[in-house]
Queue: 4 jobs
Job 1
Amino acid sequence: MMTPHLQTMSSNAMQRQSASPAYKTQLGACYCGDSLELLHLLDDDSVNLVLTSPPFALLRKKEYGNKEQHEYEDWLSEFGRLVKKKLRDDGSLVLDLGGAYERGSPSRSLYNFRVLIRFCDDLGFTLAEDFYWYNPSKLPTPIEWVNKRKLRAKDAINTVWWFGKTEWPKADVSKVLAPYSERMKKLLEDPDGFYQPAKRPSGHDVGRGFGKDNGGAIPPNLLQIPNSESNGTYLRGCKAIGGKGHPARFPAKLPEFFIRFLTDPGDLVVDIFAGSNTTGYVAEIEGRRWASFEAEREYVAASVFRFLPPDAPETTMREKYEQILASESVDLSRDRPMQERLFAVTS
Ligand SMILES: C[S@@+](CC[C@H](N)C(=O)[O-])C[C@H]1O[C@@H](n2cnc3c(N)ncnc32)[C@H](O)[C@@H]1O
């Protein structure tokens, strides 16, 4: 169990600037506003991980608005430049970007690759590793090229660029081991029966070292995570206020992977396009300090539901929501810690 009263921000910067959060918890705080302004409130060289999913350069406008592809790189670079200042030298930026098509043509946009090159060449990030998030529950789109004309396969992958501020971002892959395959489990049960000294087609020797149980397999950079979570308390709250959930929520497993992989308990995790604040929620559960920034007050207000007890009455949910809409700051920092609540549910 982690220390309950870690300071929310890396310093008293937030107080100095008298920015009050929309709500705060034991470990973090969610702010409503433009991240370009809110990022200034963080100390330089203080953040361990910025994990975020900006509005994509989509042709079809989402309800929260997004930039046209040609202005996208310039727009996102402004955030990237500031993020780099705020990261520690061993800090990481993880950027999730969905793919897109060119207008009126079955040709893919290069915008996500342009962002990658721009961030490295102009902003000075290093590409620590390129990840691909495969979402098997994605619907086949765009309808015109995929369903109607049958010219393209379903687009089910987002590119997730993991940037380092330097060449040596903190990371420990042993914290995110994947379950072993059935074949590997058999090998571990009976290494001698299974082991036949052999050379692989690549010419590498397959030695007995492969029979050692490391607690799981090294995960690949293809993350298979369906976006089909039920988001219990969050969606219950949305229903109580007569709304629907944020349209582009992360599945919790995505931030969970990078938070465990790239940070330690007590580290500071920031999401600058927080939406429904999945990142802050996972950070809280994982015992990391966090700060989340979101421009739309209604999204911020609804995201508070994630931090309420699963049995919170609808009246309480509506009350907190209304308080945040009215720009009152909600303090949940004295509530029962999230980890304890989860433990109570699972034990
Ligand atoms: C793709 S969504 C993020 C969803 C989020 N990952 C989740 O799990 O809910 C992007 C969000 O960025 C917000 N946004 C756009 N421009 C912003 C800005 N300048 N500052 C803060 N938030 C912004 C949008 O309102 C939108 O909710």
Note: The chain is about 30% helix and 20% strand.
Job 2
Amino acid sequence: MPDRRARGRGEPDRAVIELTRVSREFPGQPPVRALREVSLRVDQGDYLAIVGPPGSGKSPLLNVVVLLDRPTSGSYLLNGVETTTLPDGARTRLRGDRIGFVFQSFHLLSHRSVVENVMLAEVYGRRGRKGRRERALAALERVGLGHRAGFAPNRLSGGERQRAAIARALLGGASLLLCDEPTGNLDSRNTEAAPLARRGTSRPSSCWSRR
Ligand SMILES: Nc1ncnc2c1ncn2[C@@H]1O[C@H](COP(=O)(O)OP(=O)(O)OP(=O)(O)O)[C@@H](O)[C@H]1O
Ligand SMILES: [Mg+2]
């Protein structure tokens, strides 16, 4: 990685994500410190894979970055905005506008068709309804799932569900794409078809990239 401290004076700050000493502790007996003072910076155009054994805190870290969870302590700047103190509504809008996310367990709505699930990505964003179905169908084509658009998610294989979730993440026009084990269920050909894991390891545990 380039040495970011070498950035010249007057050059714009290209940080998309800046975490400073972020901790997340889950209460209980005993409490679990899933994240301990994590500091991390991701610039525009960066592609990053996070790897670690089960239970090492990858999903808790992604949940914080995607604004679904708040750290117990520390600072998280998204495009220069301090997010830890923002009210829930502002965090939801920021997420809808800026972030696409593929969950480890997909989170597809069972009572909606595949294409409707993909369309939901735009509901909290800025784009209008016009052309939404066409954009969703194009995203499904992009991951090789156009022929399953009308299916219910529970009729899809694990790999197909994963691709539907990837299509949904691609749709929102997000500047930041976060993926929690996005390609674990895909064969190597479809791993390449899903335009996520093109660099780095072919099966990253977690990754994010700014397109
Ligand atoms: N919502 C939660 N409530 C309470 N504790 C949690 C929660 N999420 C995570 N933890 C704790 O944090 C630890 C690390 O989280 P997690 O197991 O999700 O990490 P991971 O690296 O994503 O693992 P995996 O590779 O299995 O997905 C867990 O073992 C658990 O103890
Ligand atoms: Mg996980």
Note: The CA atoms of residues 149 and 200 lie 30 Å apart.
Job 3
Amino acid sequence: MKTPLCSACLNSEFLCNGCNTKIENGELTKKAVEIIRYMHELSEQFAALRDVTVKDILSYPEATILIVRPEDVARVIGKKGRTISQIASYAQKPVKVVSNTSIQDTAQSLVHPAEVKRVSTVFFPESTKKRITITAADADKIQLPLRIVNKVIADIYAEDVEITYQ
Ligand SMILES: [Zn+2]
């Protein structure tokens, strides 16, 4: 597993100066460190996790978001969702795994099993906004609060975001 923590810190309960600096800078939270170490432990049991690169972990009160490479999404979810459900019960909140290749892909992972119809750009005189349109019939299928979906996309892509149904 590759993670924002170095491999020494992955395997110990202490943090080296380098990794500690990431916490002090706010690049990593203590909660994220716990989750990364737990995933490393789980990789004994779920071998697919060993090849995963965790790029970042975003912690919100309502959910934890793991950002990985596109090819890692299925590895972290695991067969029948077994791996991610263990991570979620450890985190004691919903955990979503996303890639940050495009707003469309990230939004789709966040709202699954609802469907993202399209992502478009709305132009204002001084700024732009990304509008994510979700199939209206799927509104009940979204597991995260929309506010969180909105915030995650805004945080990853540094864009203003609005979510609409159609
Ligand atoms: Zn370290």
Note: Helices lie at 7-10, 17-24, 30-42, 73-77, 82-91, 103-111, 146-157.
Job 4
Amino acid sequence: MKNLVRPLVAISLVFLTLAGCGLLPQPAPTAAPQPTATESAPPTAAPEPTTEESAPTAEPAPVAPFHAGFDYNGDARSDIVLFTKNGWQAALSSGAGFDAPSSGPWTANLGMWGEIPFAGDFDGDGKTDIAVLNWNGEFWVGLSTGSSFDAEGSGLWASPAGLWGGIPLSGDFDGDGRDDVLVFTEKDGLRVGLSTGRSFDAPGSGRWNTPAGLWSEQPFTGDFNGDGKDDMAVLNWQGQVWVGISSGAAFDAAGGGQWAVKEAPWGGMPLSGDFNGDSKTDLVVFTPENKWKVNLSSGTSFDAEGSGDWNSAAGLWGELPTAGDFNGDGRADIALLNGNSEWWLGLSSGASFDASGSGRWQSAAGAWCDVPLNAADFWRFDHLTPNMQNLWEGRFRLSGCGQ
Ligand SMILES: [Ca+2]
Ligand SMILES: [Ca+2]
Ligand SMILES: [Ca+2]
Ligand SMILES: [Ca+2]
């Protein structure tokens, strides 16, 4: 039965995706001008050329054995930042709640409601930054000061990777310590913009080959083989995972291709993170049956010992799952925002998501229709949603977020 149902669902999804893709109405490109970044205004005030020159070869920047990711204040604990109709809100982790000092609204000179937000440590200073991809295919970046997103260097970042309609993902694909951007597109494959610290156009930027990735699949990123360079992968409708290992110049290094999985069912929400703390990024799929299907990376497959269903103290289907190392112990955890604007945490023990400290966390921010950047998977999921009208409006399938 299951085998019958799955292809049918998948086929109709693909069909609807194809049918919808050509028709995506641009959300009123002219109606909403790019915010004028009065404060930073660096677009033309050229980025320091020295940064660019020293970037690729100079220093093989130290590769942290583990970085929490989504750590906006640089204290080694992952936080939550939300893109809201009223600007950017930070919910900083204290290790036991999302209400550490400096939580609340953060100023930034970017982000119109309707643009696609994402996050990464784009200047490599240890504090996660924010960015949006706008309707002109431009990347606007807000560098974190630790309490705002308007550090020097914020503004428009040039890149050959920008393309509206693509899905932006971040990762340090060349392993230089600065997160780069990857845009997964329907017609143009993968475009990578390598960060110089002031732009996404370092040498090597452009189209990258990969054995993995069709538009109808769900992409995610992480350092799956643990060599210090982030890789990309897709989950396809057959429950297969295909991996593109980064060589630093393409996603076609040895070791890529189809990887065995423990169980990665299509129809769930894939999230990546280092759930057992061995420095190799793993995959978890949250399913409509409220199961957490953990697929641990061995470096060459996603079925390392310890893979399987993990118990969790949190997570009901319909809530919005995110991943990050919220208590800073080196293992990625899960956090879910529910319809009551509550955060529920499942902290990783290395074998389950119910370690001590799990449960409801108080938070200074996070309302149901806000967009938590950790849930980048949300966008990846959305582009397959049958009722989507475009990438942005897809989010309004969330209960109660309709227009
Ligand atoms: Ca933090
Ligand atoms: Ca990089
Ligand atoms: Ca890698
Ligand atoms: Ca943790």
Note: Residues 8 and 14 are 10 Å apart (CA to CA).
